[in-house]
## 1
Amino acid sequence: MNNDKKIAGIYIRVSTEDQAREGFSLPEQEKRLRAMCEYKGYEIYKLYKDAGISAKTGNLRPAFEELLQDIRDKKCNTIVVLKLDRLTRSVFDLEGIMRFLEENDAYLDCANEEINTTNSSGKLVARMLTTVSQNEIERTSERTKFGLAGAIKDGHIPARAPLGYKHENKKLVPDPLTKDIVLRIYDLYFEGKSYYNIATIFNEEKVLGRTNWKDTGILRIIANEVYKGDYVHGKRTKHPTYYKDVVEPIISKEMWENCQVQKKKNQKNYKRTQTYIFLQKLRCPKCGRILAGGASHKIKSDKWYFYYRCENCKNNIHEDKIEDKIKVLLADILEYDNVVNEFFLPVLKSKIDNPKEQLEKELKSLNNKRDRIRKAYIDELFTEEEFKQESKLIESQIEMISSKLLENSQAEQLSFTTEDILLKRDMDFINKVKLPISYYAFNDNWDLLDRDIRADIVMRYIDDIELELKNNKYEVKQINFRSTFYSDFEELYKKGYIDRKRPLTYDINGVCVDTNIRYSEYLPIKDVMQHLYRLNEYYEVNLYKGIYYKETEKLDIGPLQRNEVPIRVFPLQNNNNGDKNWLSMGMLATKNNPNDIKVNIRDVFETIPDNVTEEDFILSDDNVSQEQR
């Protein structure tokens, strides 16, 4: 090929942003460049066209790559473009192109810019123009990022709505049709199910009519920050941006974090021949290593003994020693969780999670969609099979929303309070005293539970157990319960609506008793009397007053009536009686006699008495024992 003859490869390009701009369309570029080649006497070898591709570094432009190859093959020697930014907007890329042209005895000609790369002045102009172009694109990018950040902070998430959410007025909001599925996924994972287990369960149940649930999809849901209200933009880039509290969360931040901890633990999952109740919950206080589980078997008694050891420090602690420490407190937590989560929260939750107005709006939208599908079928826009599939999906969604509306209307007729929680706990305890056989069906004994169930309870409620060294032996220092529910438990306890078992010595009827007893904090006497009155709708319950001596840690109370059993003790003074060395205390007690229950046994376990008015509880002074007046 004669190097003096200019054989042109015409290169035209538009990006998606440029297509609407006047003068940048492909036909317009081609027309102008052919005219320039004719004017300058260039022979046109070929037209190279890239449509909808930007000139950013890293973008693959097939036509441009073909042009470069044709220059290598000496088929042409001149790149003809409208403007330099049609070729590149990167100074770095331009340097590479210029080196390529020099190596292949070729050059560049721009119609709208005086660029001639055969001399140093032309190369300088090319570099300056590219620098200006790169600065423009970087400034545009900064403005775009600033605007995007503002939009994200307002809840406008630039992505497809994940399961459990939908776009409403350009904002990402929880979808009442699917958010419960997300909640269930987190609950199942929190309870110990693997991604594969959850996917299998969903496929068997055909959740959302699907049988293609995969463990990878469950993993993405568990790891997605949006479910706790946060959003990460540019996850796959080197510098992602984290936005906190920009979306209404479906699950709490505590639950999300707990599931991430659980995920790390599951990464070291392998088959075990034994179940270790406190696995991954214990750490050596000396070296910080997580304790490993071990077991020994006594052939003669056919009994297994379990322990946890530090491989570094060669120290260990027996499992029953840990169980003895956690049983009392864990029983309180389990009782609280049973009363609150099983008895009250399902009703309260249906009010909170299923707002009536939103459900009614969703139902109206679904009914309209059903009508449109029916009209489309009549107009023969759908086949009969398509119509049946779409109708089935809509009907299942309508059924789900209608069910939630029914739950909501039922919930509106119920009103539970913190006082009800205390009442239900006392009732459960009295039932245990009076009807131990019936009560057993509702409250299993820890020692009778199998190891898998005990391990599941520990995993579900306990975050970790802190140990300390005493006389070179491990001792339980502190039990850290999962914050997702324990903070509520602690708050209710401080306000007097939740009891705990605590060791107490008390003198009753001349007999000194040293035992664990149910204890709650101060409640105003008005609330105590109302509570007593409500209990007496079902049982014979008396209130006794006594003195607690701080120095000796002994309670002097009574005398109780024959066969009476203490239910609970509590302070009758709010300020711990200041600096005085005694404190006025109250005790509720009931007879160990099933005959005084005033209702059907089944109702005792399923019902709580109605609240009472101020006039009602004033009369309840009759229930203060005669000896106490």
## 2
Amino acid sequence: MMEKGESDVPMAEKIKTLSPVVLFCYNRVEYLIQTVMALRANELADQSDLIIFSDGPKNEQDAEKVRAVREYIHLIRGFRKVEIHESPVNKGLANSVIAGVTEVVNRYGKVIVLEDDLVTSPCFLRFMNEALDLYQDEERVCCIHGFSWNTKEKLPDTFFLRGADCWGWATWKRGWDLFEPSAEKLLASFRAKPELIPLFDFNGSYPYFKMLENQKKGTVDSWAIRWQASAFLADKLTLHSGNNLIQNIGLAGTHIRTEDHFPKITGNRLSFPIPEIPVKADERAYRLYADFFKSASPAFSLSGISGMLRRAAGKILPDSLKSFLHRCLGEENTWKGNYESLESAQKDAVGYDAANILEKVKEATKEVIAGNAVFERDSVLFFHEEPNYPLISSLLFAMHGKEELRLLDFGGSLGSVYFQNRKFLSCFRKISWEIVEQKHFTEAGRELLKDFPEIRFRQSVEEVFRNGKPDIALFSSVLQYLPDFQALLQKAMDAECDYILIDRTPVFTENEKRRYCIQHVSPNIYKGTYAVQIFGKNDFGNILNSRYQLLDDFLSYRLTIRLGISRDHAEYRGQLWKRKS
């Protein structure tokens, strides 16, 4: 069923009535925007009702974040209907989910459930709706689930497991009616049949029963463990997709903390309709999950061991051995040195103007133009869609309701950001994507991309501003290489750009002092070294605060920048600033 290919059967012939989609959110607008943008890209989004439950703030510190979330959810479009519920008090996630799912499933008879850190495949809604239709009258099936783990062997296209699940799921009223909120009652049922406990725990590889005990103790508050236990004890089944339709972008706080084990979306294109399979638990899939949970256990995982070694090394080993250990663990540092200024670091770096870099980027861009790759970044080709959700969601949030986009892309290479995210730009009737680059890139871009009239190459920001102010000034992975970044941001402010969007820029999360060093490019990409600065956490605010308001500060790239043996680590951050009226 799940081979890559186009859908064979019209949707209207397969799906009787679309299920409403319920989305629970709290205070993470940067994740919520990504979740909504991915959901909007689903083929059934414009025919689906979206029902949003926004929880109230726990404290004064969270109040401003909740306010930002609520400002955003009132701007959401692209669905048949958007219904918003704003709680005046903080219910907590568990109570919010239980109450919200109960309310909606009682009204509609079925429901699809998401939280604000789950990015969906474009096929997610169709898979869930078709499965809800297919198994509507099958009493033993109580749940549909879109997430699958990264097992060593390939999972079946669809399969059943006993119990329920919680990352991108759906159910009917008859399924949710089984939900037992009392952990004490659930534990009593298990203790009456103790032979079920190892089966519940995937042969002892995952501590579901312990989580249920912690729920009773009050050390955790999880609706999901009670949902899983309720369905399991009732001997009900969940239909799973063997192709992962969910990317969890909010990994902090999850039970398995080894990020390598969290798969990316693999089901971007599925064949439909979903075939009907025998309604019984799949023993092979159960075994693959049990094996996966064992390998992902923090106590035994390689990343867990290496993490302990790194922490110990920082305390007891001499510098020479620390360096050797980093190399053995595959983390030889690419950020080196501690210079007095960016100019002094530039004396030891090759820089971006080396001829070999342009040639490699040109060849990669030709492959993108020819349709042999989706996009390129730093000459590396990407063959599957990997939109930069934090960037594109910030851009679309800023331009909500507007039909034309004029954007300054400073240091935009040969249109890398444009090609990576262009499928989300189709909402604009007219686009002017103006790239400011070095002279040899500008000349190459004008020749290579002459059949893309929306992309224009300029040699200075002044040339862009002479034709009127852009809506957005975008600085993606560029400010860190510029000695005069302050002057550049000042020019964008003076031109009164409505928004300034900074992306993929290294920033210390705690340190307020800037650091200058050399960044070494992997030899697998091209031979190159850059003088680079890692910004202090207040560097941009000190410049922009007087005339711009910070709307969002987000993690834009999941890579921690490690500076040798120093504990002064940084992250790739992004920021969206709006001009004050």
## 3
Amino acid sequence: MKKKHELRFRQVHLDFHTSPMIPGIGKAFDKKLWQERLKTAHIDSITCFSCCHHGWSYHPTEVGAMHPGLDFNLLRAQIDACHEIDVKVPIYLTAGVSNRVAELQPGWREVNPQGQWNGWVQSPLKAGFKSLCFNSPYLDYLCRLIEEAARLFPDADGMFFDIISQGQCCCPWCMRDMAAEGYDPEKEEDRLRFARRTLIKYLKKSTAAARSVNPDMPVFHNNGNLLRPGNRDLLPFFSHLELESLPTGGWGYDHFPLLAAHCRTLEDYDFLGMTGKFHTTWGEFGGFKHPNALRYECAAMLAQGARCSIGDQLHPGGMLDESTCRLIGAAYAEVETKEPWCRRAASAANVAILSDGGFLKPLKPDETSETGISRLLLEGHIPFDRLDDAGDLSRYKVLILPEALRPDAALRKRLKQFMGTGGKLILAGEALLKQENDEPAFDLPLKHDGTTDLFPNFIQIAPEFADTVTTPFVMYHPSQKIKLTGGRSLGRIYDPYFNRNYLHFCSHQHTPFKPEPSGYEAGVLTDQILYFAHPVFQLYALYGNVVMKDFLLKTIHALLGDDLVIETGLPSQGRVSLMEQKDERRYVAHALYANTILRGMKGEWFTDHIRPSSPVQVIEELNPLYEVKFTFRLPKKIQRITLEPQGTEIPFTQKSGKVELTLDKLVCHQMIVLHY
């Protein structure tokens, strides 16, 4: 399917937030050397700066102010140099923060409900960027700046607006308009609703400004929270999606797959993943990660159906760093060879998470449960998508409901229709119950007696789902109390002697379990529904209990059976995905493997102007795996299987709907292409 705006595969986001105290801006820029280094890095698109967080423009301007250390049109020179060698150049403008503007117009700054200025820092004695309110006259100024950039650079290949966030602002402009429009600023819910109204006001005006010269100008507004399920009303203001997710910058390696699982269901929108070349995160001059880390991160983006973007920061002198270009080139040379098997590929997963944020649309969404489900499926090698209330349920065989998603009447009707065609459900905790009352929402063979008041309690896993642990293991949050009238029990619940408090406690943490079971069950498995009485997905996200993971995956496998599209001998650090290129009549299975190592530690041993250290997930060695077995259950008969981009045909067996093969060796990333 053709997208609204098709992205290139090998982009760099070139930060250039540069202090006005630094002279000689752009003095090292040399067109030929710039072009040579872009080629070394195999870059085909690079985002360059019009206006940075410090508030300075990198070209002549009548609306803003050109950086005082710059004496020529740097952005024009960058665009011309790139276009000569067919490299695209979207241009960047800061939106949510601008220190120059904040210092000139402090009345335009965002003020939190406690009366403090919002931003990186609250104190004027601390270094950091300052947030501005989109409901103040700042928005008019910003739109004039955007319109000017659109006139000056009509040949730009897009506009990227950054820090698109509107908090619960109580500045004079917001207080005035909340009162005039019937919002109560003393209520958090009203402040959140007004912030949403202001965000949409910003999106409308800034997008119109960006397209004031070229109505087809690609536009992206950067804030990962806007790309979560439940935000389809914002999509008309986007031409494509960019998923900022730097694994070493605090996001971790499991953040991007959850975002991508939703974005790839938005079929009109091409999207890319954005990592960084830094050892830590943005603004780390002289920081480098191992080339193998970038190789893996780019492969992981391709595996999730995304194009690639790597974040870098340009030195004030204005020349691309040679070491960085070699580092990026090591990853992008591989991406370039893999593009044909990743272009216009759609997910072939048959399992989907129903996002509670996408159905309930809370003003303050909590993704803990969905994070737990995502990690569980990633480690269990079960490909999945993530749906909001506009998603097509009929494309899937199994739907998973997070604990907070208590279905309303409309969702219950949709789920009943889904199950009527043979679909299966997995749910946990309060997802058992109707939204409007505490009655079970599903036809399950059980009696519901409310929520336990004794916890942490314990599960003794039913023998068919147990592995090495056969005694009760701890569950840290309360469970629903259920007694079964049919189906297969997942195990028995044991209560503690008492809850821990100042009157009675035992040992360092929680109270041990009583010798006799409570009479309640840990969950139930029927032909079409798997239900866990505890909020197991939240628990797995928070605690990462290996015994719980094994228990959950055994029960999920029991429900899915032949609906598992992939089974593999990869270890839990391995990742798989399954995509389909219908025009080419082929499935593309992505297999990835890398060990992450936690390096560094939390510490504040240095002066205030150095960011405190913290542990960082590092990928260094890419250790090979040998003799990795795969089983596929696919709806189409497979004619041949190749390993790409090597072009090697490999043997396989196909019988009773199962395709089986062995991958002799896996290093980092392998595409297994199944031609039908």
## 4
Amino acid sequence: MDDYQNNNQYNNRNYRQKEPLGFGKTMLASAVGVIIAGAILSFIGFLLMAGMMVSMMSSMGSTDSVTVKNDTFLKMNLSGNVRDAAPSELETLFAEVTPLSVEQILTALNSAKNDERIKGVYVKVGMSDLSWGNAEELRQALIDFQSSGKPVVVYGETYTQPEYYMATACKNIYLHPAGAIDFRGIGAEPMFYKDLFDKLGIHMELVRPTSCDYKTAGETYTMNHMSAANREQIRVYINSIWDYVANNIAKSRDITFEQVNKVANNLSGYMANGAKEQGLVDRLCFENDVKELMNNDYKSKHTLSIAKYAQTCQQTGSDQIAVIYAEGNVQSGQGQGYGTGVYGDAIASALDKAAKNDKVKAIVLRVNSPGGVATASEVMTDAVIRAKKKKPVVVSMGDLAASAGYEMSCMATKIVAQPTTITGSIGVFGTIPEVGTMLSKKLGITTDTVQTNANSTALSTMRPLSPTARALMQQNVEDFYVTFTSRVAEGRQLPKTFVDSIARGRVWTGRDALQLGLVDTLGGLPLAIELAAQEAGVSNYYTVRYPAKKDLVSQLSELLNGTDNESRISLLSLITGKKRLPQQPTDIEGRIRRDLEQLSKEPTLQARLPYYLICQ
């Protein structure tokens, strides 16, 4: 306040009080403000429309303009964001690099396997955010592609561990002479804010069922270290993932499991020369050498991006299998189809429409979510129950299908998970911040109350919870936990007492979940689609995406006229050249920003994975 006064009230030695604007001046100022705001909005609208027109003109006939020549190698450029579902036109409009999707890659590889024009596949890796679940999905797809006798060549300057794991599906792994492979085993590193909150004067109330010691998401705000339960479950699931991954690497590279662990322990395969000596790669070379190899050894004359090739792939069949993508944090409402996010009403609507369509014989729900809003989870779970009464619903679990992501899955006809999928986390928690102390001591802001009843302000964040309010919140989470476990028991046909013993907020890998009866089999999206067809009794089928991707004009119009402010902000960030924060940021700044953003805007009751899964 002192700076403000110095700058505005004491411009000169003599202070002269400013008079308030008269009515006419106020109206004039308001009118000028409206005109300026209108001009800015019109200009932004013009830019959006101009970009939209350019995009439409450039994309008109895009499928027809893709020519697949003989002796072509498909190029899969893995860099940046790798997600489940193909991006919309709106997302690609302002993106510097269009993100690849598992959907596009699986479609292309399945078609290219029997396409005589395609000689092979060239995979270039580059520090992408490829997860363990998607690495397994792509690894199996590359193995299937190579069963046709066509080669896959992988090259990179640096490999993340999931990228390298995917690459071990191939016989030709090449590395830059000065490159590196980030090969060191798996570690998880939760972040805690209690000490920061103590310094700020913020008290966080954590409410969870009395039996849910493993539901540790709220501990991020109430502790400064891992609880014993949290440490136990992390140790179990990262060891499960690493055991599976390391064994597969050993088999593919013809080395022992013990040798794989020795290389990881000593970091002896990290640098390029060490990677070659330890048998992790086949050759150290430059990318130009790889291109010469494709030309000389495999007679490749052309390359084509796998995303463009996917545009040309046509499916045939008489019956439809609907594929619905539920990717991202679980949220309430409809959303605008921009970015990743599992919006409860949107997923429920897609399930209802697919269930009512007679052409659709079965539904595959692809879940890749750490969970989120409990009420939205209930909306989607109820929609799965309705849809299953009309036709088979098979869930394909991606990297994450935990908490709310598992609840929406548990009532399906069948559940397919990857061995590295993180699932379970059957439980709920609530966090209620008290910021009154901070505002009073740090900023000098206080509040007072007038109320009609004893608990009219009981849930205010300006003061600690009253005993009555605390008991209410406790009953709320206890009731939801009973509902959650009852759904799992019914959907998985398991005794309630057994479900409670393996629930309690605990996280499991797909391998462990199979042993516990939480999933039916291990595999990827293609297996889930195959099982859905078998359940429906159809053999001549093709897949359709629900809901269908909207064209650019419709999507942009809905976004500008709707109420999804988060999507608008994300779009504005892209327009202004700012990078959108990923769902699972790995850098320290990104993790702090995302944690505090989620805390500030999420409702109290959450069914969410206990922590960010930073396991690379």
